[in-house]
């Protein structure tokens, strides 16, 4: 009978140890899940931050593109004016040359 009791005690200890091992595994798994949840939250926060930066950068890019377009239009207007002014100057030089020639002819 003493042998049977010892076997029962050993079986009981094995059951207790198995239960403790199972509980330890469960705690470890729960800790891992909690850690992964924290990591997910951090990644989601980083994603939100990145999206905000992207939105801000896209808005700045759009504003810069508009400013560049306006500058380009302004530059074309100035180039057209300069071309017209050069044409006008060339015509005025020609008219001045003719006027000098006429004045010289009149003086003779």
SSE topology:
Elements: H1 2-107
Describe this structure in words.
With 108 residues, the protein is mostly helical. The chain is built from 1 helix and no strands. It has one helix at residues 2-107. The protein is rod-shaped. The chain starts with a helix and ends with a helix.
Q: What keyword list fits this structure?
A:
98% helix, mainly alpha, 108 residues, single chain
Short description, anyone?
This protein has one helix at residues 2-107.
Q: What proportion strand?
A: under 5%
Put simply, the count of helices is: 1
The total strand number stands at 0
**Mean residue pLDDT:** 95
Coarse structural class: mainly alpha
The coarse silhouette is: rod-shaped
SSE succession: H
């Amino acid at each position: 009978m003493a042998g049977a009791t010892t076997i029962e005690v050993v079986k009981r200890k094995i059951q207790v140890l198995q239960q403790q091992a199972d509980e330890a595994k469960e705690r470890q798994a729960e800790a891992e899940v909690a850690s992964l949840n924290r990591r997910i939250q951090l990644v989601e926060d980083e994603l939100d931050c990145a999206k905000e930066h992207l939105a801000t950068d896209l808005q700045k890019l759009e504003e810069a593109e508009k400013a560049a377009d306006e500058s380009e239009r302004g530059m074309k207007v100035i180039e057209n004016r300069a071309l017209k002014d050069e044409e006008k100057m060339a015509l005025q030089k020609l008219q001045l040359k003719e006027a000098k020639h006429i004045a010289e002819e009149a003086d003779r």
